[in-house]
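Sync notes, pocket subgroup
Present: LS, DG
LS reminded everyone that the earlier model was apo-only. Rerun requested with xanthosine-5'-monophosphate included. Inputs:
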Amino acid sequence: MNENLNQDKIIVIDFGSQVTKLIARRIREYSVLSEILTLKDLSKKSAFVNAKGIILSGGPSTVTKSSFPQLPKEVLNLGIPILGICYGLQLIVKNFKGKVKTQIKKREFGRANLIKKRNSILTKNFFKKNKSTVWMSHQDSVYKLPKGFIKIASTADSAMTIIENKKKKIYGIQFHPEVTHTSNGDTIFKNFIFDICRSKKQWKIGSEKKRIIKEIKETVKKEKVICALSGGVDSSVVALLIHKAIGKNLKCIMVDTGLMRKDEFKSSYKIFKNKYKLNVKIIDASKIYFKKLNNVIDPEKKRKIIGNLFIKLFEREARLFKNVKFLAQGTLYPDIIESRSTTGSKTSKIKSHHNVGGLPKKMNLKLIEPLKEFFKDEARKLGNSIGLVKIISNKHPFPGPGLAIRIVGNITAEKVKILQDADHIFIQELKNKNLYSKIWQAYAALLPVKTVGVMGDSRTYEYICLIRAVISEDGMTADYFNFPKNFLDEISNKIINGVKGINRVVYDITSKPPSTIELE
Ligand code: XMP
């Protein structure tokens, strides 16, 4: 990626950590280009062009075995500053003839207290009163420093938690500054990229936009692209980017499953058709969706039915367009890591995500995924930079199977209507109270139990509405949002008074893990 961009960059060498992309993301947040390379990529001549710094990621391997992923020796001698994180630190130590041991009794997982031993440029403004809380995930530790290195900070179980060789500009840290559980972790990156690497702030989402549009033009040439447009952030940004690149040769299909938020589908359609002049066709499929989902309780079955039906409808429609060679998808980076691990082993599947994954092979289409390198917030910024209306670019994520996985148990048109109304009240209230943008994702769900209530002098027997609001960085982990009590009081009232069919509102206070964001 980004080979054409002539600007300072930080190379992140990936040793298979699940959070390598977070490192790259932190750097980009400081307006410096970051590029993730695997060991294979390092042999390319262009690999280190414009590189101002190198970060070695963590990973599942251990340098204590006879064979482990090794760094080509020349990388350590390029004179480019290096920061090793976890496995990266251990690799540095191994290469400079220090010692690393597996120490099961001193392994550290989770939060640890770090104590400062010496000053370092890397830790400028990082410690508070010579202490910090950091996030650990290791059982190998450095127990003998290599020549030329000094210790900067320690925990009770790991003496060499931060080390440096100032002369060679090589630094190593055992903890993970890239995860939010490390307080002040960003400061480490900031110090590394600006004070040690002397990088300039040159990376802008605007330059990514130009690169992507250029790449789409070069890939697609005069061929046609088809795109499933939902009105969510990802597919909308993809459609607009491709439209900018190839204009009318992009054909968009919007399949209305009847399982979308209240009124949202039609209003998005109008925006694409009238404001952006996209070539877009809407298919009303709600009746067939309700029919197929009748009496389906199992969440995975629901997902499969919705996904397969979507493919069938989309395929049928797509065949009406002649000579289509490409299928555009709004795949984001977290979609990719949730379904496969960077080490090659298959991580256990929690839920089958609904997308149009079966289509490219079936229809002999090539995939275009302009957002697959990006996190959700970067996709939003890209959207803003190409003029996507805020109402779409700031929209919370919405799952492909829609309200079907927010109506626990059997789905009926009546339940969908009840839920749409409750959800609408909840989301509007978040917007009115300026809370919407503080929350990563919020929604209302309908539980499959009725309970007794009293309204006026009458007994009611109606559904429970569950409301969920989470803060998250990318949906991979999440915490529930801490509402002021009066907001919860008000929303409960508004939903019960405004929606016939609901007489009880509950707030979900679980984080992910152990729960997931959606109910099914
Ligand atoms: P979970 O429930 O897995 O959700 O914690 C994480 C994020 O993914 C969204 N989600 C989906 N998005 N198709 C999608 O496009 C799906 O099938 C799907 N299932 C969950 C969910 O809304 C949350 O943002």
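DG: The mean pLDDT is 92.
LS: DSSP finds 15 helices and 20 strands in the chain.
Action: DG to write up.
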